[in-house]
Amino acid sequence: MTATGSCLCGAVHYRVTGRLRPVIACHCTQCRKTSGHHVAATSAPRESVAVEGDVTWYASSELARRGFCGICGSNLFWDGPGSHLSIFAGTLDGDPGVRLAGHIFCADKGAYYEIADGLPQADGMDALLTTQVGG
Ligand SMILES: [Zn+2]
Ligand SMILES: [Zn+2]
Q1: Which residue from 17, 32, 27, 3 is spatially nearest to 125, judged by alpha carbons?
Q2: What is the domain range of residue 9?
Q3: Cα(117) to centroid of ligand 1, in Å?
Q4: For residue 103, is it within any domain?
Q5: Kind plus residue range of the DSSP H or E element containing 17
Q6: Cα 127–chain centre separation
Q7: Which of 13, 28, 57, 114 could form a disulfide linkage to 65, CB 3.0–4.6 angstroms apart?
Q8: pLDDT, tens digit, for every residue of 94-105?
Q9: What is the pLDDT confidence band of residue 2, given thresholds at 50, 70 and 90?
Q10: What's the pLDDT tens digit per position in 8-25?
């Protein structure tokens, strides 16, 4: 399976070869600030993601950095500990074949919305949700 994606202006393109993890929504404060709402991200092993164009990286903590397009500002990647690169699902082209599967850091969610889709919710990090890799 191959998935492609890009930022809004098209200066950054990427291609993922292989499987994507189901999409997980993260409601932590950092994700809310960086996206303007909450983040929904899939992930894939770093070596399976080929990026073209200049990604600007912001060190959002001592352990992680967030990649965005320096021209249009699209949030594209979260790069932290582990073997996988998180890819913001809204930047994928077409139907990548993966679906939203759960929510993490729900304790930090914004006060202005409810999570009502019936999918699993974790107050904080959930290793089961974030490390699973599906077809
Ligand atoms: Zn762009
Ligand atoms: Zn988050």
Answers
A1: 27
A2: 2-112
A3: 31
A4: yes
A5: strand 13-17
A6: 15
A7: 57
A8: 999 999 999 999
A9: very high
A10: 999 999 999 999 999 999
Residue 100 lies in a domain: yes
Ligand nearest to the CA of 13: 1
Please state the domain count of the chain.
Answer: 1
Which ligand lies nearest to the CA atom of residue 74 in the structure?
A: 1
CA dihedral 10, 41, 18, 57 (to 10 degrees): 50
Residue 133: the pLDDT is 57
Ligand number with the minimum distance to the CA of 78: 2
Across all residues in the chain, what is the average pLDDT? 94
Residues with CB under 5 A from ligand 1 (ion): 7, 9, 11, 69, 71-72
CB 68 within 8 A of CB 58: yes
Classify residue 122: in a domain, yes or no. Answer: no
CATH, residue 100: 2.170.150.70
Can you give the pTM of this predicted structure?
Answer: 0.93
